Amino acid sequence: MTHRIEGREKVTGKARYAYEYPLEAPAYVSAVQAEAGKGEIVSVDAASARRLPGVLAVLSCENAPQLASRSNGELAVFQSRTVSYRGQFVAAVVAETLETAREAARLLRIEYAAEAPDVRLRDDHPGLYRPEEINTGVPADTEMGDPEAALSDSDVQVDVTYTTPAEHNNPMEPHTTVAHWNEDGSLTLYESTQGASTHQRTIARIFGLDREQVRVVSPHVGGGFGAKGTPRPNAVLAAMAAREVGRPVKFAVPRQQMYATTGYRTPTIQRLRLGAAADGTLNAIVHDVVEQTSTVREFAEQTAAPTRIMYRAPHRRTTHRVVALDVPTPSWMRAPGETPGMYALESALDELAAAAGIDPVELRIRNDTDHEPESGLPFSSRNLVACLREGAERFGWAGRDPAPRSRRAGRRLVGTGVAASTYPARLNPGRATARAEPDGTFTVRIAAADIGTGARTALALLAAETLKADLGRVRMEVGDSSFPTASVAGGSSGTASWGTAVVRACEALRERLNGAVPPEGVEASADTRDEVEAQERYARHAFGAQFAEVEVDVDTGEVRVSRMLGVFAAGRIVNPVTARSQFVGGMTMGIGMALMEESVMDERFGDYLNRDLAQYHVPACADVPDIEAVWLEESDPHLNPMGAKGIGEIGIVGAAAAIGNAVHHATGVRVRDLPITPPKLL
Ligand code: MOS
Q: Taking every annotated instance into account, which residue ranges of this chain make up the domain Aldehyde oxidase/xanthine dehydrogenase a/b hammerhead (predicted)?
């Protein structure tokens, strides 16, 4: 167990986050958001803004320089008069101080030719279409057997629809860019990002630069949850503003502006149909998903993807339909796809268990499979059943009275619920260098991101282990695009992908080391592309089981989670202390999803109404019980040199279903519309 190696730097304030980079005479940016939900900008009157002392520049569609690439509509900042959604950045002021910039932004007069925006997701929306493919590059629809016939032939049937709201990532550190153009025409960005290399590539393309002409520096990042996995408009705007005023600029997106500009989880409408024999054996699974994208850019979340891999059933169909609304483009939020998809599937399984009179743990065990149902591939390892059994044992599941409203503690109804969890084990190619210094220390570099997860520490441990050196002798450097190229901190792929590159670089270094290290040091590097491409064909996923106990106040409908246990099988756990935090953090986000988190769309004006953490509720300490997260020893030779599967996202998957199932057990009320707020129970 190793605490974060940068922990002291963080708690003493020495760790530098993007906004804090000291640059000479920085200017400050304040952005203006569209007040129309759809339409055209007729005019931008900046006269009074420009008169304010200290204002350096006003940027909008009327004067912004043309970007070299506008193919990503989300990032084509100020490139046209079109307003695609309310809250879109339509102008910005650059000024000597942030206060001046904000005041001047307030003075801008923007006139719109506005139309009524179409912002409501419905499953009968005429604009629904089948995307070419969904986000992971797989087909939108799949079908095996004859699901319709199989459903009607089944002894037990469930046909239910679940809805999940839009949810917003709320990292503590806002999206921040400090942009600085160097004298040689290159650009340096101090950025809060989940991927320095991908950020570098995207920004270079947008400004028509070579990749090497952009440097992204981001050694410390205060959370992201997917929202910082792709560059957001703030980065383009800051770079544009810095070029305009010929000075470094700083731009941190205020939380109030974040809800429209930095991504969110799509709302979903999911119809689940299950058909089973009387003993609970699944015969058919049909999962039809409706979700939203924007007019700016297609984003088709892979919501039904987990339904393709979870349970044995000869007949199955999954579909995804999206509609392009006048809304910001949805983006990644912790376990995009798996999170809403498994909420629906695992809630429906609970409904099937109740309908068939079978214990919900037993029902899942009975429908386990030894190969991935749709692809037919063997699993590299799959320990779902072991997780369920271990969890049932630890949680005290045995002897549970399945009847709803069967337990009471004073005014509170008590119930327990279970759900399964899964997340893909991905491996992305990347590079790393390892260097032996003459003083006996090692420097290992990779453009990986530590967004607070402990990734840097895990990589340092892997390097030390491979080099057979003390951890204290390893200098682990991440978060800089000038280091060897790395994939994004997303899809729970970081430790596996970067770890492979680090291990291979360290192995190569060890081979080259013999005798004294010369004054210039000895360096070795690795590129894992070939190794990643040569991976054998296996279905690779982590699995888990979530257990929750809730207490529901019979008078107020208030739900309190009193106990929660997650048991995970995610390959080798590299660093238990930070891994546990990832699991617990994911489960905590699951509490938020189940009971609190909801971005409310204003259908008249367009845009989400939430503006801060008073309006967007996430669990506070008092909402979170002593969550227990444990894992099974899992040895899987088909993954990567570490045998690690990835742990950042699986903790949230299934957590909301377990809580919803517990609420049903406690109250007898099946809420199929998240979040489960008190009025829905009364
Ligand atoms: Mo994760 S939502 O892929 O950063």
A: 12-116
